[in-house]
Amino acid sequence: MPLETADRWPRAATLLVEAPIPERRNVHLLGAHTYATSVTPRSATSTPAAIRGALERYSTYRFDDDVDLLDVLRLVDHGDIADPDTTGTDALTATLQAEAGPWILLGGDNALTWRGLTALSHGDLSEWGLITFDAHLDMRDGVSNGSPVRQLLAEGLPGANVVQVGLADFANSAHYARSAREAGITAMTRSRVTSVGVAQAVTEALAIAGAGGRPVYVDVDVDVCDRSVAPGCPAATPGGWSAEQLLTAVRVAARDARVRAIDITEIDVARDSADERTIRLAALLVLEAAAGLGGRPQ
Question: Which pLDDT score is estimated for 153?
């Protein structure tokens, strides 16, 4: 007889369903493995598929809250958008606009942030706010995973409601830092976050990005973490956040009612370590996001 049964140790993957469950809170999940325009060439291996697979490694029970997510919510899995960098754009937009959310989007690189928020805003970015957990400004010229914030600003996202948390030294340029300041973006460096603590930094970011009750999109660029934590992130550097810091940031953000969508980006499965530590972290981020988005008072 097995030592454990599914009812005694349900796997987190059992939260995934194909359609909403009326008696549960429903958080919507969509994969979009953008990679074709990445500044650092990366593989086409599907990160969303790997993250779903890693959910099998975890349970549905959140110890801190004494809550079994199976009793509270489901993750409505809308599958993956084929070729989201080019031909899949219309499908991505149609899927995101068909449901009010809340949404968890699985990248892919940071090009997903521009595509995801543009779709959710129905073309009017002026009413939205953006928070990025990222070592980088993403203000580069052109169209790549290094440019989504600049692209969103150009299309009407107000810089006064953009907050970038976790920015790293020697990972950005003076030119783009000036551009961000001129746009009115609030920058929170690694040292600033260390000084006030992650929870306080994210609380401050939510107040700015969500001023006036505006909806907020949160970009979780996993390369904000230390390279030892996230070897599957091509641009991760030494000195970044711990896994617990990023999990805390997502936990605080997801519980705020203004947050409508959270993306998880910048992971290249082909670069991950043999123990899959980056993908395992991403799966935990999905669970933290789901717990916050689906556990809010109705």
Answer: 98
The per-residue pLDDT for 295 is 87
Name the 3-class secondary structure at 260: strand
Q: Residue 1: its pLDDT value, please?
A: 38
Distance CA 271, CA 288 (A): 24
Sole residue written with tokens 């009612």: 257
For the chain, the first-to-last Cα distance in angstroms comes to 42
pLDDT of residue 161: 98
**CB distance 14 to 60 below 8 Å:** yes
Spans of all domains in the chain: 12-294
163-201 exposure pattern, b = at least 16 Cβ within 10 A, e = fewer:
bbbbbbeebbeeebeebbeebebbbbbbeebeeeebeeb
d(CA 240, CA 246): 10
Which CATH fold would you assign to the domain 12-294?
A: Arginase; Chain A (3.40.800)
Q: By the 8 A CB rule, do 216 and 259 touch?
A: yes
* Cα gap 146→230, rounded to integer Å: 18
| DSSP structure class, residue 29 | E
Output the six-digit token pair for 63. 């110890």
Closest CA to 97 of 77, 127, 75, 118: 118
State which residues of the chain have pLDDT below 70. Answer: 1-5, 298
- The pLDDT of residue 85: 94
DSSP label at residue 241: B
Q: How many CB atoms lie within 10 A of CB 88?
A: 18
pLDDT in the model for residue 35: 96
Question: Tokens in use for 17?
Answer: 């369903």
So what's the pLDDT on residue 24?
Answer: 93
